[in-house]
Amino acid sequence: MKAMILAAGRGERMRPLTDHTPKPLLKVGGRALIEYPIEALRTAGFRELVINHAHLGAQIVEYLGDGSRYGVEIRYSPEPPGALETGGGIKHALPLLGGHPFLVVNGDIWTDYPYRQAPLAGGRLAHLVLVDNPLHHRQGDFCLDGSEVREDGGARFTFSGIGLYHPELFSAVAGERFALAPLLRRAMRDGRVSGEYYPGKWMDIGTPQRLAELDRQLRRG
Question: Looking at residue 116, which CATH number applies to its domain?
Answer without folding.
Answer: 3.90.550.10
